[in-house]
Amino acid sequence: MKICAPWEKSFKKISTPFEHFIHAQTTTGLILMIMTVVALILANSPLAEAYSHFFHMNVDFNVGTWKLSHSIHHWINDGLMTLFFFIIGLEIKREILVGELSNVKVAILPIIAAIGGMIFPALIYFSINSAGVGADGWGIPMATDIAFAISALILLGKRVPTTLVTFLVALAIVDDLGAVLVIAIFYTDQIHLVPLMLSGVSFLILVVFNRLGIHMVLPYFIIGMFMWFFTLESGVHATVAGVIAAMAIPSKPKRAPVSFTKDFHHLLDEYESYPALENHLMHEKQKAILINIQDRINEVGTPAARLEQDLHLPVALIVIPLFALANAGISIDVNAISNTIMQPISMGIIAGLILGKVIGIFGVSWLAIKLKIAKLPHNSSMSQIFGVSFLGAIGFTMSIFVADLAFLNTPELIFQAKIGILSASLFAGLFGFLWLKYVAKVNTKN
After folding, report:
1. Same domain, 262 and 324
2. Which of 43, 92, 206, 372 is most buried, taking the most CB atoms under 10 A from its CB?
C-alpha cells in the first residue's frame, strides 16, 4: 500500500495554475527546511572548514583576454538565484493579469497589508540601528519567505480557509515585488552606465520579440543571458534582471481557446476514423494527428505559463537547496549566540520581523477593515489574520539574500544578521502555526 504525505493527498487533484503554484511552494519550503538543517550540521562538524572553503572557491570563465571570475557562493547568489527571481517575476505578472491582484477589491487588503509589513519592520530595525555599522541592514526584516509561510499554512489543512491561503500568497507576491525594488534601488553601490544601457537595450529586444508574437523560448533565453550579464557588469544586482526579463515573456496564447476547441474536436474525430491495427499499433496518419494536436496545445498555452511550471521543479530541487546550503550554515556556539543575539543588528532584525510584521500586517489590516477600505477574506477571522502575520515574519530566503548585500564582505555582521533571521523565523513560524491550529477562531459568518 502506497503511503502519501498529507500535502501529497491534498494536491492529488490539482489542476489550476494557482494550485500548481501552491504545491510548488510547499515542496520548496520542505526542501529548504531540510537543506538548512544540512547546512547547519556541516558548519558545526569536522567538515566545517572544507564546507566553507568549497563555497569560496573561484570559478572562472575566460574568452581571450576577457575574464569573469567569482566564487561558487557568488555564482549561486548572483547567477542561479536569477532563476528564482525570474519565477518571482512570472508569478507577479500572472497575479496582476489573471490572479488575485487583478481584482482591486480582492487585492486591496493584501496589498495594504504587504506595504505595512514592509514599512514597519524597516522602521523598527532602523530605530535600533539608526547609527553605526548596522544602519544599512534596514531592508533585511522587510522580506517574507513565501515558501516557508505557505508550507506552514498548507500543513494546517482544513483548519484555515482557502481565502486565507490566497490572502497570504497575494501578500507575499507584493512583498517580493517590494524586496526586488529595494534591492535594485537601495543596495546598488555603483552604477556603470554603458552596461546598464546595454541591459536596457536587451530588455527592449525582449519586448519587441513579445510584440512580434514570438513564442519560442530560445530567443528570450539568449537575449535574457546577455541582459543578465550586462546587469551584472552595471553594478545593479544581477538577479533583478530575472524579474525584469519575466515581464517581457508572452502571457497571451497564439491561438484563442475557442478556436482550439473546434480544431481539437475535428482532429480527434479524424484520429478515431482510422481502424485499429494489430498489436495496438497506430496508423501513421494517427501519429501525425497527435503531433498536430500537441502543436495546437502549445499554441493555446503561453510561454510564461510553461516556463513558470517547467522551472519550478529545478528551482525547488537545485537552486533553492544550493542557496540554503551556501548561506544558512553558521557555527553554533551557545555562548557566542547568546552574545550575538543581543547585538543591535540581531535585535533589530528580530524586533523588525516579529513586531514589525505583526504591526504591519495585522495592525494595518485591522485598520483598513475598520475604516471599510477593505474586507476580511471570506470565512476568515481577525484572529486568523493575526496568526498569518506571524507566518509573514518568516524572512528566511530573501532576508539572508538582502543581508549578504547590506553587509557585503563583512562576515561578522552577516553572522549577526543570520542569527537574527534564523531566530526570528523559527519563533514566528512555530508561533504562527500553533496559533492558527489551536487558538485562532474560525469565522463562517462573513
Report:
1. no
2. 206
Q: For position 119, which CATH number holds?
A: 1.20.1530.10
pLDDT at 183: 87
Instruction: Report whether pLDDT(101) > 80.
Output: no
Both 24 and 104 in a single domain? Answer: yes
**Number of domains comprising the chain:** 2
Residue 195 lies in a domain: no
Q: Which domain holds residue 265?
A: 257-298
Higher pLDDT, 202 or 266: 202
Q: Is residue 359 domain-shared with residue 272, that is, in the same domain?
A: no
- Residues 87, 116, single domain; the answer is yes
Judged against a pLDDT cut of 90, whether residue 225 lies above it is answered with: yes
* Domain shared by 261 and 368, yes or no: no
What is the structure's pLDDT at 332? 75
Residue 263 lies in a domain: yes
More confident residue, 70 or 194: 194
Pair 370, 413 in one domain: yes
294 in the same domain as 159: no
In a domain, 208, yes or no: no
Tell me which of 137-141, 174-178, 387-391 is least confident. Answer: 174-178
The verdict on residue 314 lying in a domain is: yes
Question: 350 or 4, which is more confident?
Answer: 350
pLDDT value for 18 = 61
Give tens-digit pLDDT for 418-443: 999 999 999 999 999 999 988 887 76
Tens digit of each residue's pLDDT (9 = 90 or more) over 120-130: 999 999 999 98
User: In this structure, are residues 435 and 390 in contact, taking their beta carbons and an 8 Å threshold?
Assistant: yes
Q: Which residue has the higher pLDDT, 14 or 297?
A: 297
